Amino acid sequence: EADAAIAAMCNDNLKAFGFSDVAVSQAAVWTHSNGVTFAASNDDAGHVATQGVSVPSVKLAEEIAKAPLQLLKLDVEGAEFTLLADCADVLPSAERLIIEVHAFGEDRVGTLLSLLEGKGFRYTIADLHHATWMETASPPPFAACRTDKYYFTVFAWR
Fold it and tell me: What's phi and psi for 78, nearest 5 deg?
């Protein structure tokens, strides 16, 4: 967990519920382990950014490659496109994936889903939400879609 306040809260919750075999790392998952700039947002929407505080990072692909995973859950506020592309070679080490996909810009949803298919995953999509709080330069020409910015969850399995 890159956000120091959320990492501390997670540690407190684990301790309160008696989980002594879980370790929280205060670091961002990324495509390298050289550290990143993180924009904390005082909620759960902090993200890697060009302005913010410097935090340690861990290369997600290296973590996945260490051992087979039963479950990989990603909610990384738009970084899922970059991270999954970087992890393509090791993704088959994961049995199941839960990915919150944030399509807020020039995102490659089709590329992400094709990557999963190419690595042997089946998937389903759930919980589509339009990000109506975000401005859009060119809204879709459909009354049901006020914005082209949205997020949803992908459940993938092998």
Answer: 105, -15
Tell me how far apart the alpha carbons of residues 140 and 23 are, in angstroms, rounded to a whole number: 44
Report the alpha-carbon distance of residue 105 to residue 27 in Å, rounded.
Answer: 25
Residue with tokens 């550290």: 35
In order of 6, 15, 24, 84, the CA distances from 11 in angstroms are 9, 6, 7, 27
Task: List, for residues 80-113, the tens digit of each pLDDT value.
Answer: 999 999 999 999 999 999 999 999 877 689 999 9
| Two structure tokens written together for 102 | 């944030």
CA separation for the pair 30, 13 (Å, rounded): 25
In sequence order, which ranges of the chain are alpha helices (DSSP H)?
A: 4-16, 60-65, 80-86, 109-118
Biggest distance spanned by C-alpha atoms of the chain: 53
Record the pTM: 0.88
- C-alpha 36/C-alpha 31 separation (Å) is 10
Instruction: Return the structure tokens found at 58.
Output: 């861990």
Cα separation, 56 vs 58, whole angstroms: 7
Q: How many CB atoms lie within 10 A of CB 93?
A: 16
